[in-house]
Design a protein that fits this description.
globular; disordered N terminus; eight-stranded mixed beta sheet; alpha/beta
């Protein structure tokens, strides 16, 4: 039943969203740029490079396995006021620039790079299970690993180019929805008890 509800929600979101481009299993794009309010839905396949400008948006739900020229997405760059949602798939490198936002709650991402010039913790949101681990190099966070809400593992290298603020200073990590619901219910029960 839960699976059916999730599929219906996904289908209705796709119809409402009206994507300009759709990449499905077996599809491959070389270099794709989304400008203005253009949008892309990726449910399989992959591509070399995806760049989001202006208010462009991409919804990455799944890709083929990361194999050059066949599957996964090798590079995504989101800049301007663009928006990126990643719930699955395999991505080699993700670069997030000033004012762009990324909401990540699944998939495998090898690297996240920052091209922000100042910390802004609201730009990259990671939704995962509690118990994630941070890796440090010379006191700077350079990696994060843990599990997504579906129990799948992730291990992301955080690359901090010179002149940009660190990736982690632009990241907000929130518990997955079921954990948040349990925390909320716990608060209600504690309040009722008093």
């Amino acid at each position: 039943m839960k699976t059916l509800v999730a599929i219906l929600l996904l289908m209705s979101a796709t119809l409402i969203a009206g994507y300009d481009f759709e990449i499905k299993e077996g599809d491959w794009f070389g270099a794709q740029t989304l400008t203005g309010t253009q949008s892309m839905l990726v449910t399989g396949g992959g591509g070399d490079a995806l760049t989001l400008f202006d208010h462009g948006r991409a919804d990455i739900q799944n890709t083929s396995p990361l194999v050059e020229g066949y599957g996964g997405i090798w590079q995504i760059m989101a800049i301007g006021y663009s928006h990126l949602a990643i719930t699955g798939g395999e991505i080699h490198r993700l670069t997030i620039g000033t004012y762009a936002t990324a909401h990540i709650s699944g998939g495998q991402i090898d690297q996240i790079r920052s091209s922000y010039f100042g910390p802004d913790a609201s730009r990259i949101t990671l939704t995962c299970n509690p118990g994630y681990l941070l890796s440090y190099t010379n006191g700077v966070v350079t990696g994060i690993s843990g599990t997504w809400w579906d129990g799948s593992d992730f291990n992301i290298q955080l690359v901090n180019p010179a002149g940009s603020s660190t990736v982690f200073s632009n990241m907000t990590i929130i518990p997955e929805p079921a954990t948040m619901l349990l925390l909320g219910l716990g608060g209600v029960f504690l309040r009722r008890r008093q």
